[in-house]
Amino acid sequence: MKKIGNQNFRTDLFYHQESGYWIDVHNNIARIGMNPLLQETSGSFVSLKLQPKGEAVKKGDSIGSVEAEKHVGHLKAPVSGTISTVNEKVLENPRLINTDPYGKGWLLEIEMSRFDEEQSALLSGEDNITSWLEAEVAKYEEKGWLATP
Fold first, then answer.
1. Cα distance between the two ends of the chain
2. For 70-96, how does the pLDDT look when each residue is reduced to its tens digit (9 = 90+)?
3. Is the pLDDT of residue 148 over 70?
4. HSE-up of residue 68 (Cα within 13 Å, Cβ side)
5. Pick from 28, 90, 81: nearest CA to 54
6. 10 Å Cβ neighbour count for 143?
7. Which residues contact 72 (CB under 8 A, 6 or more apart)?
8. Domains with residue ranges and CATH for the chain
């Protein structure tokens, strides 16, 4: 974990910069969640709907929708494949996205079908992730999107 701004971030994962998701890859399975910066600027999550297990998705397809205090919108797949697991606990309690984004607050798992092709669009490596997150935090602070401690 690395503290950047008010949040702790894991730098051992992949990040999809456009969506703000983190992606933990084991074998051919991608566990997907929202990074702490995204959840901090969205406010408390109150509703979450996810596509069902077994649903085939292409990168960019809708994998569900979310409603938070400051944000309502669709969730887009950061990789292509088939949804292999949906986190039922986060569906029952969407606040887990806020309180435990890297633990119990993950969204779903996708058995990837095109990772070799899609991996280059994901950010990885501690230095790359740290630089990106520092720039994102600075941008969000400049716009007044983050609470000051």
1. 20
2. 889 999 999 999 999 999 999 999 999
3. no
4. 20
5. 81
6. 9
7. 65, 66
8. 13-121 (2.40.50.100)
pTM above 0.85, yes or no: yes
For residue 27, name the pLDDT band (cuts at 50, 70, 90): very high
| Spatial separation of the C-alpha atoms in residues 119 and 5, rounded to whole Å | 27
Provide the 3-class DSSP secondary structure of residue 46: strand
Q: Give 48's contacts (C-beta < 8 A, 6+ positions apart).
A: 64, 65, 66, 67, 90, 91, 94, 97, 107
Mind listing the pLDDT tens digit for each residue in 33-51?
Answer: 999 988 888 889 999 999 9
